[in-house]
Amino acid sequence: MAAESENLTLVQAVRDGLHAEMERDEDVVVMGEDVGKNGGVFRATEGLYEEFGEDRVVDTPLAESGIVGTAIGMAAYGMRPVPEIQFLGFIYPAFDQIVSHAARLRTRSRGRFTCPMVVRAPYGGGIRAPEHHSESTEAMFVHQPGLKVVVPSTPYDTKGLLTSAIRDPDPVIFLEPKLIYRAFREEVPDDSYEVALGEAAVRREGSDISVYTWGAMTRPTLEAADNLEGEIDVEVIDLRTLSPLDEETIVDSFEKTGRAAVVHEAPKTGGLGAELIATLQEESLLYQEAPIERITGFDTPFPLYALEDYYLPEAARIEDGIRDAVEF
């Protein structure tokens, strides 16, 4: 008998993944601002409070450091908390807890304690939100040893990656691209399943150039690749996990095409694109045929409504960057 599935949006897949793991393991606890009775600001936890009760779906004060600090203590003593930060731009008060404690707990205790905790946060721009609601600072967490950083781009991957993250023995920063929370639907199995952390996905095969991206930028990148069909044969790699990087898939693609571009909505300077380029230089320099293009957000604070669409890479700008790399 074929496995049953449901046609879900990305945010529904988040809720489905949380529900499945809470049903499977009573140590899984959801906590955060408005995640309980209200169902979360994006309704990612809708219905969980009613089903699992206030002891496992905990409405917290507006105190990000307290939310994450409490979750670290719970994780150290065997629970699997999933704290939600309402927006990535609100996470900075908890940054000390994440990098000074969660990321170091295994090393500090010489393996006596681990920190099986998943910090969920909607991230990225494009929804006409106020200041602090559109941050894309994933590179800050990638830079920290001891953390895994995951960014899904499809509903199927969202449920599978979230399941893997919750079951992982170490802390995971799980960033959800809210621009595509409800942008499209995909068949998602009803049963629990895992998508392995640390494995990229080849979303489109090509021979002329490798384009690396993740999160909400995957869709405009694929659109740009389709628009260039017949002119340039574009391979699109969706990283899915930013730390640890799937260096094998990244390097293999580049050695096939010899040209590359990186697309991300974070500012250009110090973004993850620079780390990807450095990796390709170290591992595959003799395969390189042209400078690697970075198609990114700008080195400015994220703008408000009037300039938001200009700031975010879109298909036309991605096409121009791909042409620059191929025509060099």
Account of the protein in words:
Pfam families: Transket_pyr, Transketolase_C. GO terms for molecular function: oxidoreductase activity. It comes from Natrarchaeobius chitinivorans. Residues 8-183 form the Transketolase-like pyrimidine-binding domain. Its cofactor is thiamine diphosphate. It is a single chain. By secondary structure, the chain is of the alpha/beta class. The protein has two domains: 5-189, Rossmann fold (3-Layer(aba) Sandwich); 201-327, Rossmann fold (3-Layer(aba) Sandwich), CATH 3.40.50. The protein is 35% helix and 20% strand. It is built from twelve helices and 14 strands. It has helices spanning 10-24, 48-52, 64-76, 95-100, 105-108, 138-142, 155-167, 218-227, 247-257, 272-284, 305-311, 315-327; strands spanning 5-8, 28-32, 57-59, 80-84, 118-123, 148-150, 172-177, 186-189, 201-204, 209-213, 234-238, 241-243, 260-267, 293-297. It has a five-stranded mixed beta sheet, sandwiched between helices. α1 (10-24) packs parallel to α7 (155-167), α8 (218-227) packs across α12 (315-327) and α9 (247-257) packs across α10 (272-284).
